[in-house]
Amino acid sequence: MSAFTPVGFADVRLEGKFWRERLDTVLAHTIPSQHVQLEKHGILESLTLPNPPPPLRYPRNNHGFTVQVFWDSDVGKWIEAASYALAHRRDAEIEKKIDAIVDLWGKAQLPDGYLNCWYLGHEPEKRWTNLRDNHELYNLGHMLEGAIAYYQVTGRRKFLDIMEKAIAHVRTIFGPGPNQKHGYPGHQEIELALYKLYKLTGDRRHLDLAAYFINERGKQPYYFDEEAVARGADPADYWFKNYEYSQAHLPVREQTKVVGHAVRAIYMYTAMADLAHELDDAGLRTACETLWKDVTETKMYITAGLGPAAANEGFTRDFDLPNDTAYAETCASVALIFWAQRMLHFDLDGQYADVLEQALFNNVLCGLSRDGEHYFYSNPLENDGSHSRWAWHTCPCCTMNVSRLIASVGGYFVSHSDDAIAFHLYGGIATTVTLKSGKVALRETSNYPWSGEIRIEVEPEAPAAFTVKVRIPGWSKGGKVSVNGQAIDAGAAVNGYLDITRTWAKGDRIDLDLPMPAERLYAHPSVSMDVGRVALRRGPLVYCLEEADNSGGAVQRFRLPRTAELKASTRSDLFDGIVTISADAVALEADDWRQALYRTNPPRQETAKLTALPYYLWNNRQQGSMLVWVPEA
Amino acid sequence: MSAFTPVGFADVRLEGKFWRERLDTVLAHTIPSQHVQLEKHGILESLTLPNPPPPLRYPRNNHGFTVQVFWDSDVGKWIEAASYALAHRRDAEIEKKIDAIVDLWGKAQLPDGYLNCWYLGHEPEKRWTNLRDNHELYNLGHMLEGAIAYYQVTGRRKFLDIMEKAIAHVRTIFGPGPNQKHGYPGHQEIELALYKLYKLTGDRRHLDLAAYFINERGKQPYYFDEEAVARGADPADYWFKNYEYSQAHLPVREQTKVVGHAVRAIYMYTAMADLAHELDDAGLRTACETLWKDVTETKMYITAGLGPAAANEGFTRDFDLPNDTAYAETCASVALIFWAQRMLHFDLDGQYADVLEQALFNNVLCGLSRDGEHYFYSNPLENDGSHSRWAWHTCPCCTMNVSRLIASVGGYFVSHSDDAIAFHLYGGIATTVTLKSGKVALRETSNYPWSGEIRIEVEPEAPAAFTVKVRIPGWSKGGKVSVNGQAIDAGAAVNGYLDITRTWAKGDRIDLDLPMPAERLYAHPSVSMDVGRVALRRGPLVYCLEEADNSGGAVQRFRLPRTAELKASTRSDLFDGIVTISADAVALEADDWRQALYRTNPPRQETAKLTALPYYLWNNRQQGSMLVWVPEA
Fold this sequence. Notes:
2 copies of one chain form a homodimer.
Chain A: E1 5-6, E2 12-14, H1 17-40, H2 71-88, H3 92-108, H4 117-122, H5 136-154, H6 158-173, H7 190-201, H8 204-216, H9 223-230, H10 262-279, H11 282-298, H12 330-347, H13 350-366, E3 382-383, H14 397-407, E4 414-416, E5 420-423, E6 429-435, E7 438-446, E8 453-460, E9 464-471, E10 480-483, E11 486-488, E12 497-504, E13 508-513, E14 519-523, E15 533-538, E16 541-546, E17 558-559, E18 567-571, E19 578-589, E20 598-599, E21 604-614, E22 626-627, E23 630-631
Parallel strand pairs in A: 5-9
Antiparallel strand pairs in A: 1-4, 2-6, 3-22, 4-5, 6-7, 7-8, 8-13, 9-12, 10-11, 10-13, 14-15, 15-16, 15-23, 16-21, 16-22, 17-19, 18-19, 19-21
Helix pairs in contact in A: 1-2, 1-14, 2-3, 2-5, 2-14, 5-6, 5-7, 7-8, 8-10, 10-11, 10-12, 12-13
C-alpha cells in the first residue's frame, strides 16, 4: 500500500487562470448543457419504463447492438460529473434534476435489486444473459460512481442506497458459488466503482467482488462462450472473433500486450492497479507495469492518445500510429489519467506523472471545446478540415468523461504521506494537508502551462520537519530550484521528483524555474508514419499547425527545416492569452503545377512563416486543416 | 469517328521476352487455375439450378448483399479471358470446359430469354426489381463479352446465340416505350458488351440499347428510387445514401467530377467514349475529356491506381491519395486501360497512351503474381508486411480482369488508318496491317520496359508512301530517332507522336533510343500524404522499396537525400532479369531508442544502400514491408 495518497479534488482550490477558465466553463456551460442533451436525445426519458417502450432512437447496428444499452451509464456519469461540479458550487436546480433521475431509478429497480432500464424496458427476460455484448455491469459501475459522488457532496443517501441494493443483487448473481454465474463484465468499469464503494464504506465484500471480476477474467472455458451457448447462440458468431477485444483472452496476470478496445483495456488496468495497491498484490502490479511499458513504449500517440483504429475502437500492432485516421478516443485518455495516477502512487515514479500530464494537456483537453459545449470523440493528429467537434454524440460516453475529469482535476495535483508532500502538477492551487506533524497550508502559484516559473508557499501551523517533493517534469531540462531564494541542486531529483527535506516554517517558499523552450520531438523510427517528420512541444503542450493561424490553404504544405529557429510568443489576442510557436519554414507552392499530379522537378518551395498553437485548442475557431507531425525540409 | 483503329490482339504476335513471359504464364497457369478455383468455390456449381439451391457460401452482408449475385459475371469473364488465351493456343480441354458451362446456361435460360442463375436459383419472382443493388445487367454484359470472344476464336455460336436471345429479352424489358422499364444498370458494364455486339453483328439495336442505358442514367425522378418504391422498399434506405456511388446522380453529360465506385465509373466512361466515337457525339466526348482531366489531375495514384477508399471501393475528394490504405482496385486500372485506349483513338493524343502505359506496367501488372496464380485485389503503395496476394478472392472480379487484359495485351500496341501506322507501346511484337497502299509487315524489337532501345522494321509488300507514327512517351527526355541510320528530329513529335512520312520499302527500319535514367518523381503539393517524399521511376515503371531487397527491418526506415545518385542496375539474378534502382540513402536507426517512443534528439541516421524494384513485382518472394513514396532526407 502506497505511502502517498492524493489530496481529493474537493480539498484543492484551483486558483490559476488556466484551470479556473476550464473549470468555470464546465460548471457554467458543460454540466447544464449536458443535461439538456440527455433530455433532448431521449436518454432521460429512457429511465421511465412505459410499456411498451418507445421505438428505438438508435436502431441496432449490424452486430445487433444499439447504443441505448449504455444509456444508464451516460446518466450515471453525468451525475458524477455534476456532483463534482456541485463540490465547487452547490446548485439547487442541478440537485433537483439529479434527485428526479434518482427517483426514476428508484421506481425502476426491482425488489431483488436488479436495475437496468434497457433490459427492464425492452427485454426483462434476458437480463444477465449477455455480459459479453451488453453493458449491465458497466452501467451499474458508472451509476455507482455517480451515487458515491452525489452522496459525498450532498450527504443524500437515496441514490447510494439504490446502488448498494443493486450491488448486493449483483453479488448474489456473480461469484464462485455453485449456483452463481462465474462471469465478468464485457466492458470493464464496475471494478473501479466497487473499489470506490469499498473505500467509502469499508465493506470488504465490495473489494472482493471487484477482485473476483478481475481474477475470473480470461479463465478457460470462457464465460462468454458458456453464456452464449446458454442463451442459444453460437459463440463463434462473435463479431470480433476473439476476446482480445475485451481483454478476456487470457487471465489478467498473463497479459503482457495491450490489445483490444482501448477504454475497456485502460479501465481494467486501472482496476488492477487499485487492487494491487489495496491487496499488496505483486503479481497484479507486475502485470500493470508490463502493460504500461507496452502501451507507452509502442502504442501511444505523442498527444497521449490511445487506440489508433476505429474498427475496434482500440489497439493494433506495435508502432501503428496513423495520424489522420487516429481514433484516440477521449475516454481512453481520460482512463489513462486514472491509470497513471494509480501507477504513480506505487513509488511516486515521475514517468507516470509525465504521462498523466501528457494525456491531460493534450488528448483529454482536446476533447472539450472552448465554449464547453462541443466535443471530440476521436482525436486525430492530422486532418484535412473535415473533422469537427460534435454538439453531442450518438454514443456520448466521452462528453461526460471529459466533464467529470475537468470538474475533479484538482485531485491530480498534490499527494501526501505522513511526513511528505508531493507536487505532481502545477497551475495555481491552494490546499491544506495534515501531516503527522500537523497541518500545512500550501499555495502553488504559476502561469503554468504557459510559464515554468512556479512558486510554492509552504505554511505549517508551527515549524516542522518534513519533505516537500516537487516534480521536475520529464520534458524539462536545466530547471532551477531555490528555497527562500537559496538555490538547491535540481539535478538531485530522483525519478522525476526533487526531495526538499528541512524544517519548514511560515513564509517559506520554493521557487521552480523550469525553462520552456519550444522544441522539436521525433518519433521512434518504427513509427513509419512519422519518419522524416517533426512535432513541436513547449512544456507539457504538444503543438499543431491549424489553418486558422496559417492562411493560404492546407497546412500540409509546410516543411520545417531542422535548423529553423522556433520562437515562442505570448499571444494575448488568442483564447485569453496563450503561447504560440512560430518558425521560418518553407511552403510548397502549387501555382506552377498546372495539369500535373506528378512531375520530375520538386515542388517550388517558398519561405513561409508557420504558426503553431497548442493541439488541444484546434477546431475552436473555424473548420480547417490541422497537422501535428510536420515534414522536415 | 477516329481515323485510327487498333490492330486486334489476335493479329499481334508478342515476341519480346517481357510480355512473352506474362502471356505464357497466363496461358499455362492463370487460365487453368482460375477454372479450378471457379469449381472449388462453388461458382460453376451455381450455374446448375437445383431446387432448393444449396445454402449460401457467402452470406448476405449487412446491406443484404451476397457476392454470389455476381457469379455469372465471373464465369463470363473467365470465358472471355480463356477465349483470348485460345486465340494464342487452341486447347481442347479448355474448350470442353467452356462448352460445358455454355450448356448449363442454355438449360438455365428461360424461354423468354431471361438468364441469371442467381435469380433463377434463389428468387425468380424478383427478377428485374432491383437494378440498383443486384447485377443482372452487369452479369449479362460480362457473359456477352465472353460469348463474343469465344465465338470469335472458335466460330461456335451456341453461347453467342444464348446471349443474343438474352439481349433481345433485355430489349423488351428496358427502353423508352410506355410498357418498358426506363432503367439502367446499377453496375455499368453491359454498355461495353453491347457496343462489341453491335460491332460484331452490325445490328444497330445493340448500339441503341447501349446509348439508351447511358442517356437514361441520372435522369430525375431516379429510376432506382422508382424501382425501390415498386418493390415495397424505402429509397432512403439505400446504404450509400446517394447515387454518386453508381454515377447515376446526374445525367452523364452533366457529370464533371469523378465520383463513386471506381470500376463502375471507369467502365461507364469507356462506354461513353465508345458511343462518342460511334455516334460522333461531341457532348459525350467533352464529358469524357472533362472527367479524364479530373481523375488524372486530382485522383490518380502514381501507379495509375484509382479509388483510394475501401468504403465505396472508389473515389473521395481531390488529392486524397493515402498510400497504406489505398484501395486502387486492380479492376479499376484495367478499366482505365480500356478507357484510355478509347480516348487515345479520338486524336491520337499521347497523354492517353501515357496513362494507358502507366496503368499497364504498374497497378495492373501488380494484380497478378509472378506464378500467375495469386492476385492483388487492392494495390496499396505502402505496406507494413501484412498485405499479401490471394490465391482467390471472395469477390473474384479482379482475377479474370487481369487475365483477360494480359491475354489480349497485344491489342494495345499498334493502330492504323488508311495511310498511317501508329506505335503506342513497345516490347517486341510482329504484325501485318493493311493500308490503302497494301499490306505492311511490322516488327518491333526491344527489351522494353528495361531498355528504351527500340527497332521497328517496316516492310511493305511494295514500296509505298505512308506515315509511321512512333510514340515518344511522356516520361522520356532526349530521345533519339533515326530512319535507316539517319537521325531525324525527335523534338518534332507532336502530342507524344513523331510522324515519319516517306516512301517505305523492304529493309527500312526506325531506331528509337529513349534514355531511361532512374529518376525522382514528386507529387502535387496538395497530395498531403506525399509532401516531403519522393518516388522513383525508370521508363514506364514506378519503383518501390521492398523488404526482400533491403534486409534489416521495415523499409519505412529509409530516407533518400535529394542529391543522392540513383543507379540503375541490370539484375539477371532477379525474376529472369530486371533492372533495379539503388542509391546511397540514410536509414533511421532504432538501437539507441530504448524505452522511448518520442524524444527531442533526432533519430540517428546511418548511411545505407537502398535498393528499389519495380512496384508490380512486389510480394512475389516473401512477406515484408513495401514503400513507394520515400521520405527525403
